[in-house]
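Researcher: Predict the fold of SET domain-containing protein.
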Amino acid sequence: MRSLKALICRIASKCARTIAVCFVVEDALGRLAPVQLHHFPACEHLNDQFALGLHFAIKEPNIRSSRDGFVIRIESPSDFVRLLPSSPLLANLTFPPPRRLPVIRLSPAQQKDEGNRSFAQRRFAAATDAYSLALDDKDVDDTLRIILLANRAAVLLKLNLFNAALADCTTALPLGPSPSLQLKILYRAATAAYARQQFVDASEHLTNLLQLSPDDLDAQDLYRRTQVRLVEAARGDYDWPFLFARATQVETLDVAEFVSDAFEVKEIAGRGRGIVARRRIEPGELLMVQKPLAMGVPDPKRKSFVVGANLFTETMDPYAVGDLVALLAERIGDDERTRRRVLALHAGDESILVPIGDSTSPGIDISRLEAIATFNAFHTESLAQKSKTLSPSEEAAQNIHAPSSLYDLPSMLNHSCIGNVSYSFLADVFFLRVRLTIQPGDELVDSYVDSLEGLAQRSEKLDKHRFVCQCQLCDYDREDGERAGKERERLASQLEELTDRIHGVQEQDPAPLLPTIRAFIDKIQATYKPSRPNLRPALYSALRLLGATLGTLGKFEEAIQVELRALVALGAEFEGEREAARLVEVPKLGDLNGVLSCLFIASQYQKLQKSDAVRNWIAIARRIERGQAGEAGFEVRYAEWAQKNRLTLRLDEA
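Model: Structure tokens for SET domain-containing protein follow.
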């Protein structure tokens, strides 16, 4: 096992942020060197993090040539380690007097006061450093040590460094704090444990606190929320209407994670790790609720950001991906449990990876984190956000500013264009439900791509994940032949142009365009082999366009008939007459598509004043939604569409 090398240095200039955090350091001989620190999370008070005169160690310094000489490039913040005065690495080094600052030696009590002032000013990095310097002093007594630990825990909570905050509380409690300080430490310990989803530990701390101070309102409230979280974690029992409403107001939801016992993670031949059913699982069952390990969120106040070229996928990453990688590096440095959860994720088959347990590796392998983010991060799009139709340029701009989140267990879901599960987001919360009936031993799969696109488009996107899909839909498309696929793509492109034309003449009579739409449908139908089952997604958009046009012309019965054909093209199966149709098989493809088609049919029956049929098709829509985002949020998710089409979604009011 080789030993690590490090450059011991001192900050010699103020910081500036460009594509990296830039500053100058000096060694013990007074030699200066410029530094670029990459992947450091965006934060306020950067010069508090890297204040003049602070000592650091640069692990395995990487010296690069530059136009003006050289620069020390640090890829991971974990390779730039703060050294306190008692560090053995400083024991035999004597630095020259600081160039700009007088040498001021503060006592532990003075450092505590300095930390308190910084905390009051919300300069949390400076406060942490002051408390740490005081704790590092050999002259600090136990009484002051308890105060310093308690204060530093409060700052670490503000910095979301919950593991470190919990460690300080755990250290302080056995030292015999005063009764008033003990209450504060217990509350901070409970808060840190709560944030780490350790609700049993949080409950224990709060129980001890409330025994000492039964009237503490903050503790009572946190205890109540802790008991709710324990129920959520054990049963998957959530107040969904409240969460849907709350998600419109906040970026992160206060919920417990839940994992069903219906599945397990195991190795699958040729597919790596995957999620496999232990028992039969019915549509609509909740399988998991997960909070992100880290989430890169766009900040509208930022005046500049860095967009990265992803060499894995040969595409431009949203700038939140870079923020996500920086946050992951920070979280891993704080929490060994998070470190193992992150580094266990897939990082590409061709990655040259350092074993997780290799303690000789300097810091954190940023390339590995970038690969993990590439192959596992989710573009989080909350159901609580209002959706709208975007132009290609607007969509591209939105994607650059899209939030990006990493979840560990959801990352185990492998791909199939015909997914049997469906995931959704509420604020930062990922939740997964069963879409199609799953048998014991079946793998749980979700589509990484839009299954309504053609085989070539789907394959191109999956190729960036080094994956070739062998699902039933892809097999059918391959059997139809490459020529048929290209013809479908050509017709789909022309259909988009036709759709724009129809929308552009909304004030005119669209009846003359009906033959053109029907001709498109016939041409698309001709690209499918007659023997192919009813899984023909290219037909869906054309049939939807025809149905909507017929509805506009007042031909409601024909519009219903066409929309039913559109649902069948997605793989849905029905029995019985249209008005009282019974859903036998939910659509295998699409997300909102199946529900919106059913609601369209309901709206047409409403115009025909057939209330029983309206209720039936709303009920069918709700059943489909049960296997997607869940029935509880049905009215919220489709309220805007229903209002526009003057349709009541509640069955007791329809």
